[in-house]
Structure formats: C-alpha cells, structure tokens
Amino acid sequence: MASIHAIAPQSFLNLPNPKPRKPITPHPKPTSSSNLYTLKPPKTQSFPSRKPTRVPTSVADHHHDVIPVQSSDCVDQQEGMVVSRAECEGVESELACQVGGFGASEGRLSFEGVGGFGSSSSGVGNERGNEEFYRLVDRSINATIVLAAGSFALTKLLTIDQDYWHGWTIYEILRYAPQHNWTAYEEALKANPVLAKMVISGVVYSLGDWIAQCFEGKPLFEFDRARMFRSGLVGFTLHGSLSHYYYQICEELFPFQGWWVVPVKVAFDQTVWAAIWNSIYFTVLGFLRLESPINIYSELKATFWPMLTAGWKLWPFAHLVTYGLIPVEQRLLWVDCVELIWVTILST
Questions:
Q1: Distance CA 58, CA 312 (A)
Q2: Model pLDDT for residues 127-142, shown as the tens digit of each residue
C-alpha cells in the first residue's frame, strides 16, 4: 500500500494536463468582464433594416464596458457600433446609434425626403384632377349655352306659324316659315327699330366671336365665355344703335340720286365711319377687359391703321350692295350678315 501511494503521485504529476471539455449545459455561462477586452471586434455586417441597436441598461450600468471599434472616433458611422456615454465625453446624447453607415439625423432626412416626394406627387395628382374637373364643368356649361341658344332660335323660327298649324304638313310648315319670319322682322322694325337692330347685332357679334375662337383651334365647347359675352355686349349696346343712326345721317349727308353717290358713300363709310367704329370697338373691349387706358391706347395705336386697311379688302365690295340695292331700314341686317365674317376676323 505504501509503495502504491508513493508511485501514484509521481506518475500523475508527469502526465500532461489535458484541456477540459466544455460541459454541455442548457444555458451558457456568462462571460466575465475580463474576457470582454480579449474579444476580437466583429466583422462588418450589412444590416437589412435600419432599426438602431439598443443596449440593455442593466449590462451597461453594471460593467461600463465598451465594445471596441476600429476607429478612434466615438461615433463610428462605418462599422455601425453602439457607444455608451462613459466613453464619449462631451457628447450630450445618452446613446449614439449608428446603423448601416447612416446617422440618426441622416435617416430622418431621408424619410422626410421620401415623404415630401410622396406629398408632392399626390399634390400634382390632385391639381390635375381638379383641372380636369373644372374643365369638364366649363365644357358642360358652354355646351348648355350653345345647345340652349340654338334650340331656342330654331324653335322660334320654326314655330312662327304655330297658331295656324292645324292640318298643315311638315312641308307646308317649312315652306312658309321663312316668309312669315321676314314679315315678323319687318313688323318688329316698325314697332321698335332700334331694339330690333340691337338684338340682331348682339347675336351676330356673339356668334362671330364663337366662330373666331373655333378657328383659333379651340374645341367646339371650350370657348371663352367672357370674351364672347364682351363681344356680344358691344354689338348689342353700341353697334346696333349707332349703325341705325349712322345710316340715317349718311342719307342726309348725301341726299343725291346720281350714280356717283354710291361710291362716295362707300368711301365715306370706309374712312370716317370705319375709323370711328374700330376705335370705339377696341376701346370698349379694352375697358371690359379691365385694361388701363395706356394699354388701350397703345393697342389701338398699333392696330388702327392695319385694321382699317384690312377692312378695305372686304367692305368696299359689300357696301356697293349696301348703298346701291338695300333699303335704309334693311341695311343693318345685310351689314350684320357680312359682319358675321368681319367680326370673326376682328376677334382673331
């Protein structure tokens, strides 16, 4: 027994000390604070999300340890590390979180940019939607005006003999409608000549401006209502009444019956009266557009002579018929028919 006890310690002491195996336990032992300084810094990894990493307050307060980073700066934007307040002196924030190379402020700015882009896109979409809505409403109003006016005029023209329609055929209605409408017009001229001529001029000037806008390239029901109203208002209030008195004055100025009277009246019409009426027309339209007198004068000065000479391409030939064949009371109706073409030229 004594020999066995003497030999055993020597043999056991000479044996190499094997590495103890790591016991398999369900929960790993906590790492001591000294081993934290020997850990190698983790490799740079790309994080799929931008949520900042948080450190449990119990661990940070108990150990006051810092995970080492590769740079000496306390805020490392390249490695995405978490730095405690104990290491970063002079930093007012409690925890500086840098994830994926982006700072907290940078991440906030990027989200604000995305939000601004989305809001601007939605704003542009809303503006386009509002424009389309207002355009549809505007087109509906114009279509209603055109269809209502056209229906009213056509109904009045076709129903002139509605009191005598009993037993009439459609052919008879269409046959006698022009003749009876002309008779009604002559009766209106006798009853109130100025008002009848004002209505005709107002209708002609409105229709002429609408045609002019269509020739300018606007769709049929997308015309400028205010512009058409201004032109019709000038025709109703000024052209009809002034033309009525002008033709009477012209007959008094030239009461002769010779062949030369007609050319003289045409020359007087295309110089004196054309200059007066063109000036009135553009001046009143300028005031209706709420323009300043200086702008109106500048526009009139720039367009007076070209407009006067442009009229000489059409009106001298038309007025040969006006002063040579048409009676005085019927002249404005003929002039208004030609005016329908001329107002279209003026409106453009």
A1: 101
A2: 888 888 888 999 999 9
